[in-house]
């Protein structure tokens, strides 16, 4: 808010008029006061604030400029319940979308909302154009498509009484490498004559305009012959573009438009035409002459995005009836094309009727809102209210599904304008419409960026230095030659160099200490404005009541006030930030002493003399010995002559009066009193010494120790210890012998078992003694056989 260039231009800005020197833009709940209620030195943008703040600062309520946004329904024709055709009516105008025109007066940052209603009208007219791939692989599909006309007419009578159908076909561009350009192949690309030759190739051919006569559809489709091409993808995108843009030739009406695309192959898209030397981009215009597409060999295929935008603009809903092997390609188009459905075609297209009917029901049962491009900086949001009463699923509130005939859904549309610096001037237009429908809502946007107070300008106002300027929207527009907030200075006399020198403190480089402006050789300090807590004053604006020290987040600790950068404290406080109480109440300990007698009270807190003591009043000493430990040495030396030497014991422990008792239980009979401590310590001989003493609270010194008792443990029983040790040795020895005997027995058993096993393996038969050698020797005469 505000325009900082006014300091350089030395001109008085006119507030709330965006074409003048300074502006106060409307944003959110910020308002402007058109009353001349500013003081000298305050900027004109300081009139912009919330209404409550301006009223507190003295702006009259009737002078607040506080325009509010609004939504005005310019055309609001009610939605139609039925088209009236089924019962013989003439139909008339059918309205499915309400309202038709809305004007929004938008205050920047403040959204304006309106409701859009949509009703699916009964018996709404439908136009369907069947676009078929007539390449050779689709030959077995033609008979079923021929029967489609009568069957689809019969089926669609259940939906609408006004249904029309059309037919078109496509193959591919008639250039290499998409088709063969040999003469015989151009005449008959299938190279056959029976049962009939193929049709010459073509890019796209419009065969039948939209008609309600199903017999004409069957006759013309039945007379078609398939053609052929070389590559696998087809030129369907060329045909799809022409079927969308040639509205007059196709016969499209301003009703529900369906386009059925039937093929068993993929498609060429932008850039593929370069393979055939076709480099000119598709212009998206109609080029049908004699129902033939004439630019197929001179313009490239259209891009997918180009076709999607054309279908969206022409309100055409697409149904892809494709075979299973290419269905995944066309499924990818669903996220790009508006209102698109994909059905899996059988090998001979016998299920084409089912695909069309199911796709039509799916497309028409869903409403998706869309809008044209918004002006820069504007924001739009949707909140749907569907038939079930709840918000619509997904789509950021733009979508409603499962809508039947006669159902009504609504969408709450909210539009927010940007700040006026980014907002376009003049009326703007946005179109909101459901995808696939021709009806739309025209939204006229009028940003509120100017004040209405300029018409109340007061020329030669006395508020502007006795008529030296005009009071316009609460600010002075000075006459030529006058400057200043209230036109109080003559421009020729207010030399900038002189003024600047007079407004510098001690030859400082900053004018008015950086907290004001030099007006007519005098510092005008910053006051009020958007940060009224930062006030500056003084001859050179050197003083501020917000620059003092803080304590715990509070200036002057909340115990004083800031005067020209220094804290002036209340009588009971001191310090640079008034953080120190001057009294000692916060330092009193439980016994009424200051810091327990162990420290000094400074700035409301105790400073302990002994570093071992701590706490709010020096009452804690974690490292100090307790009363019992402090008197252990004196008790031992006085009662049992242990520890200290007699001389030192007499000097340090003369104050103790001791009484020896025979049993510790006697200590329990001591009368309880304040400071009484019952102690147990261990002497140098290991005996436990029990004693009771009374000690003061200030220091650990005992005034009396009336009872002392010593318990010494009895000596060890030598006989018992000897007997236990001897018995343990004997038991351990016997246990070791038994363990040794057990281990040796197990070892011997294993060795004997192994020995027996070896004997069994070495036993033999007496007839076949392995060391026996026969005494008979047999000699064979080698010459025996010769005789």
UniProtKB/TrEMBL annotation:
<keyword id="KW-0479">Metal-binding</keyword>
<comment type="similarity">
    <text>Belongs to the integrin beta chain family.</text>
</comment>
<dbReference type="InterPro" id="IPR036465">
    <property type="entry name" value="vWFA_dom_sf"/>
</dbReference>
<keyword id="KW-0812">Transmembrane</keyword>
<dbReference type="Pfam" id="PF18372">
    <property type="entry name" value="I-EGF_1"/>
</dbReference>
<dbReference type="InterPro" id="IPR057073">
    <property type="entry name" value="EGF_integrin_2"/>
</dbReference>
<dbReference type="GO" id="GO:0098639">
    <property type="term" value="F:collagen binding involved in cell-matrix adhesion"/>
</dbReference>
<feature type="disulfide bond">
    <location>
        <begin position="518"/>
        <end position="523"/>
    </location>
</feature>
<dbReference type="GO" id="GO:0042470">
    <property type="term" value="C:melanosome"/>
</dbReference>
<dbReference type="GO" id="GO:0045202">
    <property type="term" value="C:synapse"/>
</dbReference>
<dbReference type="GO" id="GO:0046872">
    <property type="term" value="F:metal ion binding"/>
</dbReference>
<dbReference type="Pfam" id="PF08725">
    <property type="entry name" value="Integrin_b_cyt"/>
</dbReference>
<feature type="domain" description="Integrin beta subunit VWA">
    <location>
        <begin position="29"/>
        <end position="451"/>
    </location>
</feature>
<dbReference type="InterPro" id="IPR014836">
    <property type="entry name" value="Integrin_bsu_cyt_dom"/>
</dbReference>
<feature type="disulfide bond">
    <location>
        <begin position="33"/>
        <end position="48"/>
    </location>
</feature>
<dbReference type="InterPro" id="IPR012896">
    <property type="entry name" value="Integrin_bsu_tail"/>
</dbReference>
<dbReference type="GO" id="GO:0016477">
    <property type="term" value="P:cell migration"/>
</dbReference>
<dbReference type="GO" id="GO:0030027">
    <property type="term" value="C:lamellipodium"/>
</dbReference>
<keyword id="KW-0106">Calcium</keyword>
<dbReference type="InterPro" id="IPR057243">
    <property type="entry name" value="Integrin_I-EGF_CS"/>
</dbReference>
<feature type="disulfide bond">
    <location>
        <begin position="473"/>
        <end position="512"/>
    </location>
</feature>
<feature type="disulfide bond">
    <location>
        <begin position="621"/>
        <end position="624"/>
    </location>
</feature>
<dbReference type="GO" id="GO:0033627">
    <property type="term" value="P:cell adhesion mediated by integrin"/>
</dbReference>
<feature type="disulfide bond">
    <location>
        <begin position="246"/>
        <end position="286"/>
    </location>
</feature>
<keyword id="KW-0460">Magnesium</keyword>
<feature type="transmembrane region" description="Helical">
    <location>
        <begin position="718"/>
        <end position="740"/>
    </location>
</feature>
<keyword id="KW-0675">Receptor</keyword>
<dbReference type="GO" id="GO:0005925">
    <property type="term" value="C:focal adhesion"/>
</dbReference>
<feature type="disulfide bond">
    <location>
        <begin position="580"/>
        <end position="587"/>
    </location>
</feature>
<keyword id="KW-1133">Transmembrane helix</keyword>
<feature type="disulfide bond">
    <location>
        <begin position="543"/>
        <end position="548"/>
    </location>
</feature>
<feature type="disulfide bond">
    <location>
        <begin position="520"/>
        <end position="556"/>
    </location>
</feature>
<dbReference type="GO" id="GO:0008305">
    <property type="term" value="C:integrin complex"/>
</dbReference>
<dbReference type="GO" id="GO:0043236">
    <property type="term" value="F:laminin binding"/>
</dbReference>
<keyword id="KW-0677">Repeat</keyword>
<feature type="disulfide bond">
    <location>
        <begin position="569"/>
        <end position="578"/>
    </location>
</feature>
<dbReference type="GO" id="GO:0007517">
    <property type="term" value="P:muscle organ development"/>
</dbReference>
<feature type="disulfide bond">
    <location>
        <begin position="608"/>
        <end position="618"/>
    </location>
</feature>
<dbReference type="InterPro" id="IPR036349">
    <property type="entry name" value="Integrin_bsu_tail_dom_sf"/>
</dbReference>
<feature type="domain" description="Integrin beta subunit cytoplasmic">
    <location>
        <begin position="741"/>
        <end position="787"/>
    </location>
</feature>
<keyword id="KW-0245">EGF-like domain</keyword>
<feature type="disulfide bond">
    <location>
        <begin position="478"/>
        <end position="487"/>
    </location>
</feature>
């Amino acid at each position: 808010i505000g325009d900082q260039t006014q300091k350089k231009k030395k001109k008085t800005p006119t507030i709330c008029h965006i074409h003048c020197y300074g502006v106060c833009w409307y944003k959110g709940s910020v308002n402007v006061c058109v009353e001349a209620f500013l003081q000298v030195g305050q900027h004109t943008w300081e009139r912009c604030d919330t209404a409550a703040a301006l009223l507190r600062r003295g702006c009259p309520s009737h002078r607040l400029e506080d325009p509010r946004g609004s939504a005005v329904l310019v055309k609001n024709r009610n939605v139609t319940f039925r088209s009236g055709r089924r019962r013989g009516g003439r139909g008339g105008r059918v309205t499915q979308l309400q309202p038709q025109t809305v004007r929004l007066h938008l205050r920047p940052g403040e959204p304006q909302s309106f409701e859009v209603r949509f009703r699916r009208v009964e018996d709404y007219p439908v136009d369907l154009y069947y676009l078929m791939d007539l390449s050779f692989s689709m030959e077995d599909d033609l008979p079923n498509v021929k029967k489609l006309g009568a069957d689809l007419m019969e089926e669609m009578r259940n939906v609408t009484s006004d249904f029309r159908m059309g037919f078109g076909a496509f193959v591919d561009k008639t250039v290499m490498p998409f088709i063969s350009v040999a003469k015989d192949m151009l005449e008959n690309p299938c190279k056959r004559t029976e049962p009939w030759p193929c049709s010459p190739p073509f890019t796209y051919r419009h065969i039948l305009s939209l008609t309600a006569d199903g017999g004409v559809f069957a006759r013309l489709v039945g007379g078609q012959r398939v053609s052929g091409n070389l590559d696998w993808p087809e030129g369907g995108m060329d045909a799809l573009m022409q079927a969308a843009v040639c509205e007059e030739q196709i016969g499209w009406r301003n009703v529900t438009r369906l386009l059925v695309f039937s093929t068993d192959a993929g498609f060429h898209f932008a850039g593929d035409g370069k393979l055939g030397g076709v480099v000119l981009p598709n212009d998206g215009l109609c080029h049908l002459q004699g129902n033939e597409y004439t630019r197929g060999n001179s313009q490239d295929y259209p891009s997918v995005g180009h076709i999607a935008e054309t279908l969206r603009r022409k309100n055409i809903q697409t149904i892809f009836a494709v075979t299973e092997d290419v269905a995944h390609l066309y499924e990818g188009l669903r996220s790009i094309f508006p209102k698109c459905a994909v059905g899996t075609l059988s090998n001979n297209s016998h299920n084409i009727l089912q695909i069309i009917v199911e796709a039509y029901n799916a497309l028409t049962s869903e409403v998706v809102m869309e809008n044209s491009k918004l002006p820069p900086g504007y924001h739009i949001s949707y909140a749907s209210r569907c038939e079930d009463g709840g918000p619509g699923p997904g789509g950021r509130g733009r979508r409603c599904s499962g809508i039947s005939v006669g159902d009504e859904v609504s969408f709450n549309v909210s539009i927010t304008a940007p700040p006026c610096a980014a907002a376009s001037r003049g009326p703007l237009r946005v179109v909101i419409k459901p995808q696939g429908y021709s009806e739309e809502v025209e939204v006229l946007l009028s940003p509120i960026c100017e004040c209405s107070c300029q018409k109340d300008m007061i020329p030669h106002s006395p508020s502007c230095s006795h008529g030296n300027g005009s009071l316009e929207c609460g600010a002075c527009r000075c006459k030529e030659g006058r400057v200043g907030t209230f036109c109080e200075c003559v421009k020729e006399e207010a030399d900038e160099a002189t003024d600047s020198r007079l407004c510098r403190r001690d030859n400082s480089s900053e004018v008015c200490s950086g907290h004001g402006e030099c007006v007519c050789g005098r510092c005008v300090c910053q006051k009020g404005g958007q940060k009224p807590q930062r006030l500056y004053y003084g001859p050179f604006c050197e003083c501020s009541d917000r620059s003092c020290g803080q304590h715990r987040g509070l200036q002057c600790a909340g115990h004083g006030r800031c005067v020209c950068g220094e804290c002036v404290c209340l009588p009971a406080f001191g310090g640079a930030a008034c953080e120190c109480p001057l009294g000692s109440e916060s330092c009193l300990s439980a016994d009424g002493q200051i810091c327990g007698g162990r420290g000094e009270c400074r700035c409301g807190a105790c400073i302990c003399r002994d570093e071992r003591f701590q706490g709010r009043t020096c009452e804690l000493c974690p490292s100090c010995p307790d009363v019992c430990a402090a008197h252990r040495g004196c008790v031992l030396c006085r009662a049992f002559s242990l520890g200290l030497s007699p001389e030192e014991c007499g000097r340090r422990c003369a104050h103790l009066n001791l009484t020896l008792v025979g049993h510790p239980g006697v200590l329990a009979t001591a009368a309880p009193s304040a400071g009484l401590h019952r102690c147990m310590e261990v002497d140098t001989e290991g005996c436990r010494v029990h004693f009771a003493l009374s000690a003061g609270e200030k220091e650990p010194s005992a005034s009396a120790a009336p009872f002392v008792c010593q318990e010494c443990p009895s000596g060890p029983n030598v006989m018992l210890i000897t007997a236990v040790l001897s018995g343990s040795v004997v038991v351990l020895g016997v246990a070791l012998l038994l363990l040794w005997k057990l281990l040796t027995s197990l070892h011997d058993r294993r060795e004997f078992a192994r020995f027996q096993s070896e004997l069994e393996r070495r036993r033999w038969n007496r007839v076949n003694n392995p060391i026996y050698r026969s005494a008979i020797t047999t000699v064979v005469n080698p010459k025996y056989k010769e005789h």
